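User: Here's a chain of 450 residues. Predict its fold as tokens.
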Amino acid sequence: MSLRTRVTGLAAVCVGTAVALVSLAGYFTVRTSLYDQLDTTLLQRADSLRSTLANAEQLGGIPASFFSAADIRVGLLDGRTGQSVVGGDLELGPQELAVARGEQSESLRTDKARDLRVAAVTAGPDAALVVASGLDTTRITLSRLGLVFILVGGAGVLLAAAAGTAVAQGGLRPVQRLTEATERIARTGDLQPIAISGDDELARLTGSFNSMLAALAESQERQRRLVADAGHELRTPLTSLRTNLELLAASDRPDAPSLSEQDRKEISGDVRAQVEELSTLVGDIVELAREDAPQVVHEPVELADVVERALARAARRAPGVHFEVDLVPWSLLGDANALERAVLNLLDNAVKWSPPGATVTARLAPTGRGTAAVDIADAGPGVADADLPYIFERFYRSSDARTLPGSGLGLAIVAQVAARHEGTVRARKSLAGGMLMTLELPGRPSTHHP
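Assistant: Prediction complete.
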């Protein structure tokens, strides 16, 4: 059963139940009122006749047509003999006899055999005046009233079903648009947003769905750019590697000129260098793709320890560079491995640009804004002002850096790690003329002393 059908059925059932309850309450209220009114009228008539009739002979002298015209039947019951003078077709019972004997002042009952309402009042010593009226008029009125309630209730149920259908169609139209959009996306892969109308809960649902589509489109675009950029960057070393391998293979053929030992060593060295470059590039691409995936990090991290581990790895890679370190304890919630990779990339970049024997400075200190800054400064020539806005983009390499080893992804990984931890990274020239990289991360001071 569809949601639209359930809404329609629910509206019809609710309105039908309400109409039925109101109709039943109205019917029984009117029924009780009509019977009470009939009883009051009978007792008033009996009291009026009691005051005008002195005995049974007077009652017998009244023509029967008079009672037929008044739609009543009248009788006078003698309580001593149980005999009665009756006007019209009327049978008296024990209630009337009890009134005639003075056991009760009045009585009311329904004669189901003749469909009459019978009332009796005392009419002197050992006598009771009995008045009866037919119930056919009252029953006809109640039958018509019941028919009206049934017709009105049925019309109300039909109207409620129609209103429920209209409400379901109008209210579920945004849901239908969402359904059609998901089916279209599954069929075509087109991530176009859906038009939003109104400001109710369904409109907010549509807005959330559009936000999801935007995030999905952005993720697809990042993947597309990563694949395209990676393909472009891999093409050059792969082409060079294939050329060198084909040259080595061709030199081994009997009819080909042989290569000298020096040329063979140079080609083998180029092959090893290209393989290392490919390995580094593939590793950076994998790391970048991993950082692209949304991850929730809640691990307590001591940032000073992370910087120390990255410094130890960087020192092993560059034994000819001296590191000057100044670290202040700082803790945050994050991914320790990702943060270490980011700091190590900054250190590797500083080492790459620093001449042998130079000093690379690493400092960690609070900024006073609820964040701490990791500053990595090198002793290199720095970066041109025109290149500063682009150095954190993927595969971007300045004209001076193209001759140096690297994939162009290290600083892009740093930027993504900073964004994941709600931090920032920026680059500027240091006071010594080199490059100063600053990774700023939120957190709080720590009592840990590294």
